[in-house]
Backbone:
């Protein structure tokens, strides 16, 4: 694997990790624009804008965009998070340049009023659909509660109200501010020609003007509030707990990832043995969510109303035990092996590698080889995880519960 | 890539595709035991048995099984379908032998009464959870309706009634009949030592006795019936249509896969442009489901009650147009590129390759290289797809609709 990097005059960063053995190549445009970069008034604009990029440019309509990807057999998609909008494609090596050129072209969308108005309904349908999923809804609500007025609490989808209130003009303004070349990274992984890649990006994007753009970064301890709501049609309690985490830049992020596996991995974790295996819950998990300058751990449980009290008792018992006694050496070894094999297996294919490559540059402004991450994981000691447990205070969290309507 | 194969004296087939460049290896035990191999009385036993294998052996309890995988950082799981139960793991190369040995050991489970009784509730919870998903439920019901008395209509999960009625003794009997070495394939892909793999399987499994076991194969045209049911709490119409397809052994399977992409791929298909892009449905898809000696296409739509009539009109219009005019050359080229890039990208990583490797042997009793499949895809002509459209009769299908309760 060979790493290459070039920053164009307008600030657009192009990075590539070349693997001539790979059978495919993947390219991604990583834009530093997510829900946290929005004001509450235009909440949801980043995600809505992601949709709009597929509606085409002055030259291409939506149908032609799709045809252009499809005719290359591209596996392509995009996602928007609290912090990024990412557009990506995996293709056979011979189509990499075509597809990079296409993405670059789409990064200057037409944003037609007509498309904007039609897409508004699609976005509102998506909001309705996700709100119908209690697992999604409770985490979204809990994150909002946890972050209070900090912008990391913004919902990625926005609300029906903010989407209704959004105008095409306001979206164009957001676009100009955030889709600046100096606020983007083009990353490429797998089997491709670096010089042709750079030349392609340079030709397509070299004349986009740089813009002043900045993200306000601040860490946030979390409100640690508790809330509960009834929701019609629910049959189960859906419980989300959020702990303070560490940031994507924090050296403790490797220990944090292991801690979340030890507590709440799908298999073999403390939640698994004490809750899932005992059939007290349908689901119990803990995930580490590192972010730009801040971070959280989110826990999710789904169980019957009857079991909810007992489940929370066991969960708090697990947290207390870890705060008092720390993790065991056996747990550390298991977590390490899990992280290592996941890391190697995910990165084995260019599309998997692409995401780490782009995120490392977005968050750290640096390249990290798989080997560097492997070493960092191997170096974590139980003592570091136990120190982290004390620092984040595992016994203290924000809590949101969605319950079936009380029948009385 | 090098292919190796060995059949042990008891009929157990071991196959391997070696890729010394890979960073990982994957192993799978493919058992020819699924819902279609069950009688209606014990429907769900294959899936229940899959769960029971994780409960351990005479030597290992469930906790130790999990620890044994976890300590190797194995990404492991299992799934049961209408036709197979597959147990698999992806690991770093140094753990491949350990994990193969572990799976082989688990293929002779203890099937303890106590574990059986506890797991019964887990299975029933899973049935309840899936029945709560209208998209899953409607397809399951429609498949049952389509196949009528043919065993391919059996639900993989079974019903609360069949699971309640199942005894550990009956499961043990099913196990003895179906987990015979001559009814299994051990497949391995990626970076591993073939001789050590064979020696490991031989030592662990070479003395399992062969059993007479046979699957009744018969093609089935489908009942082409129509049914509808109301379901409380639904807000949308969930519609499943099932067409007659072709089998996993049929040379027309490549054309069939392309036809389903042309009609109902997530992006760029006829359903996409005429239904999803027009915001008439939240979801519209068509998938090809090749099976042992038979096959189906299943279509799924989710839309508002208000739109349902119009949606079905458009869907039937698409079917009629294809029956009359066939697919276009442009559609063929796009579908081909989609299938090709999906094929190459999926197979790039050992875990992805494993599934094709195992299924080819299960269905065809032969090895097929990626290149062979690539050639077969490239060779498909529009005329072959159009012939297939006439043969399967696109205008005729089984239909099941789940609707919100009528308010009157």
Residues:
């Amino acid at each position: 694997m060979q790493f290459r990097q070039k920053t164009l005059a307008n600030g657009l960063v192009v990075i590539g990790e070349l693997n001539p053995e790979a059978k495919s190549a993947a390219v991604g445009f990583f834009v530093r624009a997510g829900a946290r970069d929005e004001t509450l008034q235009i909440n949801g604009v980043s995600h809505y804008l992601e949709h709009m990029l597929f509606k085409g440019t002055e030259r291409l309509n939506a149908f032609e965009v799709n045809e252009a990807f499809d005719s290359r057999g591209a596996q392509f998609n995009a996602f928007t998070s609290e912090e990024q909008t990412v557009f990506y494609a995996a293709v056979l090596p011979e189509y990499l340049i075509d597809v990079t050129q296409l993405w670059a072209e789409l990064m200057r969308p037409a944003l037609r009023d007509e498309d904007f108005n039609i897409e508004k309904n699609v976005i509102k349908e998506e909001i309705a659909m996700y709100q119908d999923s209690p697992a999604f809804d409770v985490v979204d609500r809990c994150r909002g509660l946890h972050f209070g007025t900090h912008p990391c609490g913004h919902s990625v989808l926005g609300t029906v109200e903010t989407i209704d209130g959004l105008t095409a003009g306001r979206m164009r303004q957001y676009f100009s501010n955030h889709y600046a070349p100096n606020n983007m990274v083009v990353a490429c992984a797998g089997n491709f020609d670096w010089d042709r890649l750079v030349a392609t990006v340079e030709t397509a994007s070299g004349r986009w003007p740089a813009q002043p753009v900045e993200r306000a970064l601040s860490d946030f301890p979390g409100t640690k509030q508790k809330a509960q709501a009834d929701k019609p049609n629910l049959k189960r309690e859906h419980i989300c707990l959020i702990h303070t985490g560490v940031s994507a830049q924090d050296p403790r992020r490797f220990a944090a990832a292991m801690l979340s596996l030890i507590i709440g991995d799908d298999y073999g974790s403390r939640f698994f043995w004490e809750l899932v295996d005992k059939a007290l819950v349908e689901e119990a998990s803990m995930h580490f969510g590192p972010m730009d300058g801040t971070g959280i751990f989110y826990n999710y449980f789904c169980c019957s109303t009857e079991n909810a009290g007992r489940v929370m008792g066991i969960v708090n018992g697990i947290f207390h035990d870890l705060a008092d006694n720390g993790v065991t050496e056996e747990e550390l070894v298991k977590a390490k092996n899990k992280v290592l094999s996941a890391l190697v297996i995910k990165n084995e294919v260019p599309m998997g590698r692409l995401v780490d490559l782009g995120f490392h540059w977005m968050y750290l402004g640096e390249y990290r080889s798989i080997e560097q991450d492997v070493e960092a994981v191997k170096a974590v000691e139980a003592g570091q995880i136990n120190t982290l447990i004390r620092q984040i205070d595992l016994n203290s969290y924000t809590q949101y519960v969605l319950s079936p309507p009380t029948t009385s």
The first strand of chain A starts at residue 2 and ends at 7.
